[in-house]
Amino acid sequence: MSGEGGETPSLEARGEELERALSQVQDRAGWEALRVQWIGRKQGILRSLLDDIKKVDPAHRRAYGEAVNRLKETAERRFAELDASLLAREREAARRSAAVDVTLPGRRPQLGSIHPVTLVIREMEEIFAELGYSVAEGPEVETDYLNFEALNFPQDHPARDTQDTFFLENGLLLRTHTSPVQIRTMLARKPPIRVICPGRVFRNDNDLRHSPMFHQVEGLAVAEGITVGHLKGTLLAFLRRLFAPDVEIRLRPSFFPFTEPSAEVDVTCQTCKGAGCEVCSGTGWMEILGCGMVDPRVLAECGIDPDVYSGFAFGMGVDRVAMNRYGGIPNIRLLFENDERLLRQVRG
Ligand code: PHE
After folding, report:
1. Side-chain-facing half-sphere of 20: CA atoms under 13 Å
2. Looking at the 3D structure of the chain, how many domains does it have?
3. For residue 78, how far is its CA from the centre of ligand 1 (angstroms)?
């Protein structure tokens, strides 16, 4: 009986060893390694214990065989149990990582905002809409005829030099003002005409106050009996709506090939309200636009009889107004760099 007693406890010790090893398994890889070690078909511990049957004394062989088979069944059951509990743990972890945590704060949606230049153009369009003007638009690539010739800038006229034109290789050019839209309008329509022409314009000029691309709003009114008084009254009404009800304007004589007489218009400086400051170089005035009575030659060029009709025109840069309006933007290029901080500041 001593032989039998000797074999069985050693199998019991093996059983305890297996329990200890199973209790230390952390994950699937550990489980798999242990499974191969114990119940792997070719070299598993149980395989070799079963092979030992033939070495056991025939008298104890039956008991030994039964004990080994019990151990094998136990091992298979315990591996299956551990497999199930690992699977449950993995599923729980996956469920948790996929779950929505309803206590997290919401993500703030990115709100777009309207560019300051667009805001100012819209505001100008609104004011002129109330004065009976409609909006006209035209192409940014223009012919020499519409940008210059029809506006009474003959070839070789020195005023062309003031426009710093970008010429394209195909004989066309980037418009230097939106005045060609006024020509297009006069060519296409009969008076009375009241339009404003907002848009991008281009000049070869680049510093703190000039960008090679900037924005203009120009305006045109043509009808019978239009006078300088209408021009001045329209501009005063417009600028008081745009800036403040108490602003004053002054007209200084100037020159544009397409208007006669021509003037530059100043408005009370909005930084110092006319007292004189750095922004207006101590004058109390800000230069805001150019204007004049449409030259009869321009009307005639567009098929409008200058003996019957007269008109006025004006044009202004939008970007400076936007820089001034929205917290003193010091550099015109800031408007076109797409820096979101600028847009946030304008929105605020
Ligand atoms: N077209 C002129 C410019 O770009 C502005 C202007 C328009 C002046 C209409 C007078 C009348 O400078």
Report:
1. 6
2. 2
3. 93
